[in-house]
Design a protein that fits this description.
The protein is an alpha/beta fold. The protein has seven helices and twelve strands.
């Protein structure tokens, strides 16, 4: 069964010390934790600074593997069918040293060279990060002949944007998993999808966890 696997990196495969900063109109900076960033709404004159996420040396130096998720990915890639494919979809832009960045994956036994890293941070459209990820996923869905697309991500907004692509690709089964820092994954489904509506039709209400999967 041709399957497209979509795997987030930060806080899904690795925990790192990279942080998003908010810069206000006076040039003052505030550092956000990953949890704060997921909920943060920019105020007037504010902008995000993602410069930590371009630093390959910082990624290599501070990355702490989430072992259960690493093992899950190795299992997926080790048993992948010829028609299936894995992309590692990150909100990061291009790294300042590509080889240093990719070597972290090889060090932990991930066959990164048989997949591809897609960097949503390179998209210059005025879109929120989850929408940028959706643009990339949609590109793959349109050019492939997939039976299923499976996404792993720690951010519900990214999973919601992924599931919202479903109506445009009715022949593809869309499966989303919310990843925890302990490596546990939870099957994720939006309330709207569960009741036959798209995320857009419901004007952006949140999703929920509907089932646990500890062994996958």
């Amino acid at each position: 069964m041709p399957t497209l696997y979509i795997i987030d990196i930060d806080e899904t495969l690795f925990i790192t010390d990279a942080r998003v900063r908010v810069i206000d109109s006076k040039g003052e900076t505030r550092v956000l934790s990953p949890e704060e960033y997921r909920k943060y709404q920019l105020g007037a004159g504010e902008k995000f600074d993602f410069s930590d996420f371009e630093d390959a040396e910082m990624f290599a130096r501070t990355s702490r593997p989430i072992e259960r998720m690493i093992d899950r990915v190795k299992t997926i890639m080790g048993g992948i069918e010829d028609e299936s494919y894995t992309i590692f979809l990150t909100a990061r832009p291009d790294q300042n040293d590509r080889d240093v960045f990719l070597e972290v994956f090889r060090k932990h036994g991930i066959d990164i060279d048989s997949g591809h890293v897609e960097r949503a941070g390179n998209i210059r459209l005025d879109l929120f990060g989850s929408r940028k990820k959706a643009v990339i996923i949609d590109k793959y869905l349109r050019r492939g002949t997939w039976d299923e697309a499976v996404m792993f991500d720690d951010d519900e907004r990214n999973l919601l944007s992924f599931l919202e692509l479903g109506p445009a690709h009715p022949s593809v089964r869309m499966t989303a998993y919310l990843a925890g820092l302990d490596g546990e994954i939870t099957h994720f489904e939006s309330r709207e999808r569960k009741h036959g509506k798209t995320f857009r039709e419901s004007q952006g209400r949140g999703g929920r966890r509907v089932a646990h999967d500890r062994g996958r």
